[in-house]
C-alpha cells in the first residue's frame, strides 16, 4: 500500500516546495532561542538520520549521558524533547500539566481514520475531559472491584490455555490475547468472547493493525502537510483518502457494534448489569443525549484500545521473568500457599495480604515497562524551563524505561528483584517511582486500577497453579539473562517459549472447576 500515489501530482510538488520554505523559516526563527543540548542537527531534516529504529530507550539514555536529562531533537522542523529524569518529567508534565497535556496531531491516523475520537489521541479540550471523566468514574479503585468474577474467570482460562501452550511459540501470545480480550469485552460490554476466533476480537485486531499502519511516522505525506487532507478524493495522488475512508469505517464498526450490542442486551441474561456500558446507561433515566452517547461509545472503545495490548505485554513479560527467576517464583508460590491456601484461587482483596506477589507485579511493570516511552505529550503554549524556551507545538517524550532503571532508586536495575519494593533504603522511593509506569499528569493511564487488579489476579492465579521454567528464544536456544524487547509504543518481549506445568493435580482441578 502506498501512502501517496506514484502519480505524485503537481499539487503535491507545490505543497512540498511551500512546506520546505515554511520549515526553513521556522528553523531559522527557532535558532535564536535557547534550546536544550542534543545531537547535532542538519538543516531541514534535523535529526532524522540519528533517530533510533530499535530499542529507542537505550539510545535516548545514551544521549542523556552525553547531553543531560533534557535532550533536544528536531525532525523536519518539529521540536522533540526527550525527558530522561523523574524531576524533569514531573516538573513539566505534572506541575505544568495545564499546558503539557496535548497529543501530537496525526492527520492520517487521528483525523482521517478517526482514532482521535478515542481518549489516547484526543485533543486536549472539553471533549477529552468528558471522555476522561467517564473513564475515571467507571474505572476508579473501588469500581473495578465489581469486575472481580471476570478477572478470576479470565485468569483460570489463561492458566489453562498457558499450560496447553507450554513450549509453543505462538500459542502463548494467543492465550495472553484471549485473556485481555475476554476480560475487557466482558467488563466493558457484558459480552462473552468465543474461546476461538471471536468475531469482534478478530475485527479489533484488524483495526489495531490499521492503527499501526496509519500512525507509522513518515509513511503518509498528509502527516507532513496536513492541508492535503482537504484535497478532493478524485484528484490523482489522493489514494490515501480512500484508504482512510475504508479504515475509518472499520474503526467505527469495532467501537459502535459492541456498544449497540451492550445497549440491546443490558437487561437480558447475557448482558450483565456489571459492565461499563450498562453502568453509564443506568445513570440517566431519560436516556443519553447524542453527545453523551458519543462520549460513552468512545470511552468504552478506549478501554479496549488502551487495555488490550498493554495487558498482553505485561503477561508475557511476567511469564518470562518467572522462568528466568525461579527464586522469585518459588517465594510467590510459598506466599500464596501460606496466605490464600490451596483450596481457592486469588481475588483482588488478597492483594494487600500478599506483598511479595504484589511486588512481583510491580517488578514486572518496572523490569521492562509496557510503554517504554509512554505516549508523546504536546505543549500547547510557549514555555520556559531551566533557562530554555520551548515553543507551543513541541513534543515531549518521557524515557520511562530509563526512569524505571535509575540505579539510585533501583540498584542493579537489569535484574528481576521484587524484594526491592519490600526492604532496603530505596524501597519507599521504588514504590513511588514505579507508578510512573502508567505515565504522567493529566494524560496518565486512566486504566491503572483496572490494569493492576486484573494483572494481580492473573499473576496470583498462575503462581498458585503453575510451574514455569525453561525459557528459550525463537530459535530454541536457552535464554539465560538478556532478552530483547520489540520496538513500538507498546513493547513486547521478542517471541520466546517457556514450559508451563500444573503444580499438582489439585491445582489443575481448581482451574478446571472454578474457584
Ligand atoms: C499493564 C497495563 C498498562 C500500562 C503499563 C499502561 C500504561 C500507560 C501509559 C504509560 C500511558 C501514557 C501516559 C502518558 O501519556 O503520560 C497510558 C495511556 C492510556 N491508557 Fe494505559 N496502561 C495499561 C493498561 C491500561 C488499561 C487496562 C486501560 C483501560 C482500562 C488503559 C487505558 C489507557 C488510555 C485510554 C490511555 C490514554 C490516556 C490519555 O491520553 O489521556 N491502559 N497507559
Characteristics:
515 residues, four-stranded mixed sheet, two-stranded antiparallel sheet, 18 helices, disordered N terminus, binds protoporphyrin IX containing FE
Can you give a write-up of this model?
It comes from Hygrophoropsis aurantiaca. The chain is α+β, with helices and mostly antiparallel strands and 515 residues long. Helix content is 50%, strand content 8%. It is built from 18 helices and eight strands. The protein has helices spanning 10-31, 56-67, 86-94, 107-112, 126-138, 148-164, 169-189, 199-214, 221-224, 239-265, 276-282, 290-324, 326-339, 355-367, 400-403, 427-434, 448-465, 505-513; strands at residues 70-75, 78-83, 377-378, 383-385, 388-390, 395-398, 466-473, 496-502. The strands form three sheets. It has a four-stranded mixed sheet. A hairpin with a 2-residue loop joins strand 4 (383-385) and strand 5. The radius of gyration is 24 Å and the shape is globular. The N and C termini lie far apart (49 Å). It binds protoporphyrin IX containing FE (HEM).
**How many E strands?**
8
Q: Taking all residues together, what is the mean pLDDT?
A: 91
Q: What's the helix count?
A: 18
- Report the major sheet: 4 strands, mixed
Low-confidence stretches: 1-19
Oligomer: single chain
Share in helix: 40-55%
Secondary structural class: alpha+beta
Organism: Hygrophoropsis aurantiaca
Protein name: Cytochrome P450
Summarize the helices and strands and which ones pair or pack.
Blueprint: H1 10-31, H2 56-67, E1 70-75, E2 78-83, H3 86-94, H4 107-112, H5 126-138, H6 148-164, H7 169-189, H8 199-214, H9 221-224, H10 239-265, H11 276-282, H12 290-324, H13 326-339, H14 355-367, E3 377-378, E4 383-385, E5 388-390, E6 395-398, H15 400-403, H16 427-434, H17 448-465, E7 466-473, E8 496-502, H18 505-513
Parallel strand pairs: 2-6
Antiparallel strand pairs: 1-2, 3-6, 4-5, 7-8
Bound molecules: protoporphyrin IX containing FE.
Protoporphyrin IX containing FE (HEM) binds next to helix 12 and helix 17.
Organism: Hygrophoropsis aurantiaca
Protein name: Cytochrome P450
